[in-house]
Design a protein that fits this description.
This protein is of the alpha+beta class. It has helices at about 20-35, 45-55, 95-100, 160-170; strands at about 65-70, 75-80, 90, 105-110, 130-135, 140-150.
Length: about 180
């Protein structure tokens, strides 16, 4: 099956926020995440809840989800919201692979400017910008990457990076 540039009827195009509105939306989302996940230990439930609440509060989130470490040098799609995600991603390919390989957050202002298949894997041609954050367990081992795409260029910046890294660390790593 090939990806279509036509936006599915059930997905809204992204809407970027001002810096102040972005911070306020993250504050509300993080409060909701913490309230809903208090005492929760199930990793899948945590991931599904994070996806739902962040996509609800942040209108520039087009696709949001986790790619789980599924073997040496390989990620497999986990809980997500949006259009069909890539089923498997090697650490050697794409933005998610690079985030997993380097265990470092990746900010991409224009995914269409990247070399396709090596630097970026176009699971959905509507995705124009992206942030990918490595997710580590308390022992500091990679368990997944958290991937967010927008239909607009330049949707993600240091504000997103700061909030996502801190929230994911609190939920999955050490406090």
């Amino acid at each position: 099956m090939s990806a279509s540039a036509e936006m599915p009827y059930f997905i809204k195009p992204s809407l970027n926020l001002s810096e102040a509105d972005k911070r306020e939306a993250y504050e509300q989302a993080v409060q909701a995440i913490e309230a809903n996940l208090e005492g929760e230990e199930d990793t899948t439930l945590k991931m599904a809840t994070i996806n739902c609440l962040l996509k609800t509060y942040l209108p520039y989130y087009y696709w949001v989800g986790f790619y789980l470490k599924s073997g040496p040098g390989r990620l497999s799609v986990g809980p997500y919201q949006g259009t069909l995600g890539c089923l498997h991603i090697d650490f050697s390919k794409g933005v998610c692979g690079k985030a997993a390989r380097e265990q470092k957050t990746q900010l991409v202002s224009d995914t269409h400017a990247l070399e396709q298949e090596s630097e970026h894997i176009a699971c959905d041609p509507n995705s124009r910008s992206e942030i990918v954050v490595p997710v580590l367990n308390p022992a500091g081992e990679l368990i997944a990457v958290f991937d967010v795409d927008s239909t607009l260029e330049n949707s993600f910046n240091e504000v997103d990076q700061q909030y996502l890294e801190l929230m994911l660390h609190r939920v999955f790593g050490l406090e």
